[in-house]
Design goal:
By secondary structure, the chain is of the alpha/beta class. The protein is built from twelve helices and 20 strands.
Length: about 450
């Protein structure tokens, strides 16, 4: 095997985002629609109610005009319809039996019912795992690497399913998991000297703190690649710079679909690596009308998995807002790119301005080390509408003098006004006061739930 080749899959990846790939996608879509109609009761019923015959779908325009999207609201409605029995729901929407599934994964479920990822071995290895291996290969990961898996291994798709799907690359898996805690993670890394870190960016930042508490330099951990996902921190320039400086290696961003960032020095977003495996769309988050894929276009991302068994998503939304770029990437690799703007669940409206936590994190991170980088958006009323000013709790930096906080506060408010178009109320917290997590970084403090 030529380890210098540019792509893991030299048959498909050179064709990404080309007219030839569109033909491949459309042929697979037609097969998928018939398979769902014949074998998934939910889609049999839905298509019949819509008067939609799979063989009448001749183009992607027909597809988007005919098939409704499936999102968390649709999932919740089905769970209620089936009396809370999510296994019955899954049996309705996939073209194989629940008994044929090999693994069940989910999202973290931080905003409600966890979205299930039912998977057969085919899903795990040839769909999800294949897409992840393509991205890892582009990041420079090879068979001789040792991967310290620090995503939560329990249930979430970034954990065991990704680890098992990535085995085809031939690298060693060190499955420590976020559940083990930072001391155990650092111990396993010390013992087995992983060359690749796989986990959330917030955990990678937390490990920096823990290393320094132990008198260790994070560079001495020996990672040469950080593969981060599960949250948007790796796509925020200030967070990326801080992690790369601390660990002395490159960071790559993955997730919110079949995407993986490239090795170009300046962040270009994540390359969609899997046109042959999944069809990607953007829609307006409110009207759900299609948004054309062109440079700078922003919308809610929809995925149709073209080859899945349990992962047979059809115009499915995971609630992420993306900005896409279809012009060639300066890295020279194929695939259109997308950046995560935020989540539909996390959107706030402050006096006409749309605010996502990623915007807050970007501003706060630009003031490290005068602040630690930890923050919480304090909500006194249920979102999305916020009566201004939006309250943000921010930890001062460990070495920053408390008597200078008023000057720092004025500077930060100006930065928020310029970069995020709103001026917050800043509530200062002491270094280490805000709870850290080995799972996902915490963003909100929801006081309205305590009232």
């Amino acid at each position: 095997m030529n380890e210098e080749r540019p792509y893991w899959n030299m048959e498909m990846e050179p064709k990404l985002n080309t007219p030839e790939m569109r033909e491949i996608q459309l042929a697979k879509l037609k097969v998928l629609l018939k398979r769902l109609y014949d074998n998934a009761p939910f889609y049999t019923r839905q298509f019949d109610e819509l008067g939609l015959k799979p063989d009448k779908v001749k183009s992607f325009e027909d597809f988007t005009a005919s098939v409704p999207l499936f999102d968390k609201d649709a999932l919740r409605a089905m769970v209620a319809e089936f009396g809370g029995d999510i296994l019955k729901v899954i049996d309705q929407i996939i073209p194989v039996s629940v008994d044929d599934l090999d693994i069940m994964a989910t999202t973290t479920g931080t905003t409600g019912i966890p979205t299930p990822y039912p998977m057969t071995r085919h899903d795990m290895e040839d769909v999800w795992g294949e897409a992840m291996v393509r991205g890892a290969w582009r990041a420079g990961m090879r068979a001789h690497d040792r991967v310290l898996f620090c995503f939560a291994l329990s249930m979430v798709i970034a954990g065991i399913p990704t680890m098992m799907g990535m085995h085809k690359l031939g690298s060693m898996a060190i499955p420590v998991g976020a559940e083990a805690g930072t001391d155990r993670i650092l111990l396993m890394q010390t013992l087995f000297r992983g060359t690749v870190y796989s986990g959330t960016p917030s955990l990678a930042e937390y490990l920096i703190e823990k290393c320094r508490e132990q008198g260790r330099d994070p560079k001495d951990l020996g990672f040469r690649i950080l593969m981060c996902g599960g949250e948007p921190g790796a796509g925020i320039p200030e967070v990326r710079q801080r992690l790369e400086d601390a660990y002395g290696c490159r960071i790559f961003d993955a997730g919110a679909g079949f995407g993986f960032s490239c090795d170009y020095p300046e962040y270009q977003g994540m390359h969609w690596t899997a046109d042959d495996l999944a069809y990607y769309e953007l829609v307006n988050p409110e009207s759900k009308d299609p948004v054309p894929l062109e440079d700078g276009a922003t919308g809610e991302a929809l995925f149709t998995v073209l080859e899945g068994d349990g992962m047979s998503w059809l115009r499915t939304s995971l609630g992420d807002i993306h900005q896409v770029f279809v012009s060639p990437c300066p890295c020279g690799r194929t695939g259109f790119r997308y950046k995560i703007i935020g989540r539909t669940d996390d959107m706030l409206k402050v006096k006409g301005a749309i605010v996502y936590p990623t915007m807050v994190e970007g501003v706060v991170s630009s003031f490290v080390p005068r602040v630690t980088g930890e923050f919480r958006i304090v909500l006194t009323d249920k979102p999305p509408r916020v009566v201004p000013p939006l309250k943000i709790k921010i930890e001062r930096g460990e070495d920053f003098p408390p008597e200078k906080l008023s000057e720092l506060e004025a500077e930060m408010k100006d930065a928020f006004h310029v970069k995020a178009k709103f001026t917050p109320e800043i509530i200062w917290a002491e270094p280490g006061e805000l709870e850290r997590s080995t799972y996902k970084g915490q963003t909100f403090e929801k006081l309205y739930e305590q009232q």
